[in-house]
Amino acid sequence: MINAILTGITAYLSTGIDYILILMTVLTFYQTTKERLKVYLGDVLGTICLVSISLMFSISARLIPEKWVLGLLGIIPIMIGAYILFKLNSEDEQEQVVKRLSKNNLILSVTIITITTCGADNIGIYVPIFAQVNHWGELVVILMTFFAMLNLFFVLAICFVKIPVIETLLQKYGDIFTAIVYIGIGIFIMVESDTITKLIQFIS
């Protein structure tokens, strides 16, 4: 159970650093309780969509008989992490968020923003992790951890809006931290599945 919680925290943390900047951008424009509730609901719906898609892909991946072959999915987060190291795009994403916001349908706007700005990264991280889960109970714990982290990040985003220095630090170092965690998750998945050992055996 502890491992499942730590997995959930690490996975959400890796995908959430960039997203918290997006949330802060949205919350800057919408500050009433009613508006922020709509932003929260959009956040939840967007995350549910991404998790559902990831689960479907991971179920297909589990049809692969050899565990070490499944571990090759760890290459995905490693590649995403490497890509992030060479592409710092926080400011561009925030500009896109501002353009997509619609006060008339705020929930839908935030849902779409969550899916479009986080989709590829989140799915790339979640699929390998979900595919490694051996028991439904472990999956439930990971999903519950995701929900707890979602709420924590939303509260932090509200607090950070009032502290400009936090936003500056996240913009400066957030991508680097995210990339390191992505690469770490990918390596962990490959090690856990004995993929690296198998590849070394093939080479030698």
Task: Please provide a written account of the structure.
The model has no long low-confidence stretch (mean pLDDT 83). Helix content is 85%, strand content 0%. The protein is globular. The longest helix is centred in the N-terminal third of the chain and has 29 residues, at 33-61. It has 204 residues and is an all-alpha fold. Keywords: Membrane, Plasmid, Transmembrane, Transmembrane helix. This is Cadmium resistance transporter. InterPro entries: Cd-R_transporter (IPR004676). The chain crosses the membrane at residues 6-27, 39-61, 67-86, 106-127, 139-161, 173-191.
List keywords for this structure.
mainly alpha; 0% strand; globular
- The span between the termini is 37 Å
In one word, what is the shape?
A: globular
Return the structural class. Answer: mainly alpha
Tell how many strands the DSSP assignment holds.
Answer: 0
% residues in beta strands: under 5%
Q: How would a textbook summarize the main sheet? A: none
Please tell me how large the radius of gyration is.
18 Å
Number of distinct helices? 9
Uncertain ranges = none
Order of helices and strands: HHHHHHHHH
Q: Could you report the average pLDDT, rounded to the nearest whole number?
A: 83
Described by its quaternary structure, the protein is single chain
Could you estimate the helical fraction of the residues in percent? over 70%
